[in-house]
Each structure stands twice: as C-alpha cells, then as structure tokens.
Amino acid sequence: QRQMCIRDRSIGEEATIQSSAACTLSSSNHAVATISDNGTIRAVGAGTCTITAKATKGNGTARVNVIVTN
Q1: Do residues 68 and 2 touch, judged by C-beta distance below 8 A?
Q2: CB atoms within 10 A of CB 43
Q3: 52 neighbors 35 (Cβ within 8 angstroms)
Q4: Which of 1, 46, 49, 54 is most exposed, with the fewest beta carbons within 10 Å of its own?
C-alpha cells in the first residue's frame, strides 16, 4: 500500500484538500500523485511532487511538497 507524507505527517493513500476559497489544484508529477475534481489527492507511484493551490480570484498561491512511498 502506498503512503503519502505531507508536512512530515503520514496520511495514507488518499487525502482531501478543503479550502474556504475557490481555487484550482495541480500536481507537478502525475506519476506520483493525482488530484480528482473534488480535491482528493491520490498517491499513484513512489516519488515526490508539489501540489499547488491557486486562487481563482486574486493571485494567492500555496504549495505543499508530497512524498509517496510504496
């Protein structure tokens, strides 16, 4: 089973991003983690990537590094 580590916390194979503001999410490496339409991050392969949340209004951006292990 794959495990994701976000901010030094092991969270399993899936995690859901919740935001109080409208944003778009993207993964820097789809071979490591993908993002569904409802904001669920899913580990798909070992490696590292960056998940980016960009505000749809304004220019706010947040990034978090994700490490996936098998």
Answers
A1: yes
A2: 25
A3: no
A4: 1
Sort 32 into a burial class: Cβ within 10 Å, 0-12 / 13-18 / 19+: buried
| pTM for this predicted structure | 0.81
Write out the two tokens for 44: 């798909």
Task: Write out the chain in H/E/C secondary structure.
Answer: CCEEEECCEEEECEEECCCCCCEEEEECCCCCEEECCCCEEEECCCEEEEEEEEECCCCCEEEEEEEEEC
Report the alpha-carbon distance of residue 70 to residue 66 in Å, rounded: 13
pLDDT digits over 4-50, tens only? 877 777 878 888 877 777 888 999 999 999 999 888 899 999 999 99
